[in-house]
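Changelog excerpt

This revision adds worked examples to the README so contributors can see how folded entries look when concatenated. The first example is reproduced verbatim below.
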Amino acid sequence: MYPTVYRATRLLWPGGMETRRHLRELERTQWLSRDELQQVQLGKLQRLVQHAYDNVPFYHEKYQQAGIHPRDIRSLADFQALPFLTREEVRANLPALTARNFERDKLFPNETGGSTGEPLHFFVEGAFWWWNAATWFRARHWHGVQEGDRAAWLWGAHEDMPEWSWRRRWRAALMQERYLNAFAMTESKMQEFAQMLRVWRPKMLKGYASTLTLFARHLQKQGISDIRPHYIETTSEKLTQPQRELLETVFHCPVADHYSSRELGTMAYQCAQGGFHICADVRYLEVVANGLVAPPGQLGEVVATSLNQFAMPFIRYKNGDVAVYQEQPCACGRPLPCLQEVVGRTNDYLVSGDGQFVHSEFFAYIFRVKPEVERYQVYQRDARHLEVRLVCNQPVSAAWLENARQEVQRRFGPATQVTLQRVDRLELTPAGKHRYIISEVLPVF
């Protein structure tokens, strides 16, 4: 009954009607054939490029210099010939990237969380939020979760929920949401949150993979096994297989990974059958290696275009992530294309002294079998030096630390100097996330 009241109330909010309209469109387009979907994408891309050429000074100048006109975009292959947009260009050209036919005082300033360095500032129009909400609702429908169902968030916030204003607390109550501050994951706060969830019984948990993992370990330690949501949604960080296994064991429910970015919103979402579906009706996603679109199965950089952002268009934007397209269709039957994996960010990769790439999950598999390790972080300033930092939940001997170091050393070889140390804590990013891998060695794809 409550979700019905919630949905009726939401229609009265700004953007509520638009969200419902977008949701109806997305529920339809998810079943289009691959050819039909590509025609929809091409039409939206042509409209977007024409708008950018006519109204956005940055793109007008860039395309003119490259000898490109919107009428040249007659196919997706033509679009893939457009120049890339980099984060550095966004930082240096913020006013010139804002469309002249949008009133600046009606735009919403936004910024990335700064997980990998300096935050990126940009603008969005109101429609950005309504399209994004529609993609969330559609994906959650895949898992049997409706708007207004109870949801608990383990999220980055600047204060705990009891300290919010009455308006924010009223809104959270109306939306059936409860929050645990990811900046303050103390034992006492996690225990308090756990006791609330046992009574409140949310249908969905959502949070950073690292935060949910920390909470799951707390529940294991306390012997709490009766928090059983319908499913868990992880986002904003790379979800490792050991983390997925832990969450499914502790909460007795499936885990769906949600791939998104602050700049473009939702880009891909896992269905109940595990397919990592690209939201291709709202985002055009390419995987690029050596400057060219890579075939399915090949690793490359993510190049994303938001099909519904016009105030500040992101066209062929390199967001710093690394992914692989999947060739086989998903068993769920939806023709939406799938990613095989979002591997991480370009600076989440590690390189051995002899030039071999090392997947970041190598460390997840090493430390998952060591109950002494609560958290770890790996830092690489160059190919010949690697630092491993461990937060342990019990005393460990010098011999134990040396054995762990040697495990890493064997994988990286004698050309890399590996050091390992125990630390009391690891600092979170400004967005409240934990970074397992910090690498200043950028691989070239």
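The second example, added in the same revision:
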Amino acid sequence: MPKLVKSRSGTIGLPPGSLVHIGEKKRDTTLITLIGYDEDNYEERKLEAMELKSFNKRENGVQWLNIEGLSDVDTLGKIGEMFNLHPLILEDILNTDQRPKIDINDEYIYISSKMLSYNSEVNEFDVEQVSFVLGKNYVLSISEKDTDVFEPVIHRLKQGMSRIRKLGADYLVYCLLDVIVDNYFAVLEGFGEKIEVVEDEMVIRTNRQTLGTIHDLKRQILFLHKAVWPLREVLSFLERGESLLVQEATGIYIRDLYDHVIQVMDTTETLRDILSSMLDVYLSSTSNRMNEIMKVLTIISTVFMPLSFIVGVYGMNIKNMPELNWPWMYPALWLVMISISVFMLIYFKKRKWW
């Protein structure tokens, strides 16, 4: 399970804009893939860090630089110099604990988002930060590790019949964000199935393991909420069209993506409410089971209370008790005690105390 807060001890005392990777190292090297396309042509090739010097921005068409891996800080610094990225933007890219956000200036738009993938084998999901830089005729996508979530977009680009080849870089960023949001639905589907399993188990029995499972699910739903809620603000900002880098034709698609995020948020809130209700049901069932145990113990104590009194009276070392010399005293005491016990049990049963 990923940590809610990642360590920032390595950045204490450093000046703003210092390039320090915050988070888990998920890839040893940085993989760079260059995809260039226009309505008639498509090109894809791998780049080494030293080849970045010969990179030239195209006047026509779109260039997409897909960067996988954040461990090589020097390479990221070179990319920042090539595209004139502000050091604070590079710092946000390397800070994988960064909340989804948007930063707009005249030359480019920076977008930070969270990509989630559900692991059904361990019933948990992985959180990965994906950053985008949208410029004129170019897009940078920077992720923490190798990912195949963008493969559908690459496949559409290769086909050449898709709308994506005709529109600009802003539409490509929309497509990449759309894939990330669609992946949220897959995560919620697996998450919902896990909740249903726990609900079925609670109908049969509840134990400490159930409480631990509910706690893990609530912790995971916090990550979902943390990833989705700020993305709504990002899309709302893009939808208002306050940057010339976002064309009016792309606005309608961004509004549709905004609706999808709202749907994800509603589902997340519903699942969170269900988990809270499950926790209340667990606590209530535990309390009821404890009450049943205490009821049984109380009935047993109440039944034995008069019997203990009788035994205590005749257990005293007093010689002048005339009934002690009666020949039928022993069986008579047994009869009296059994009668009292039966009477009390019948009385409790009639009063529905038992």
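Reviewer comment on example two: The CA atoms of residues 203 and 297 lie 25 Å apart. The mean pLDDT is 79.
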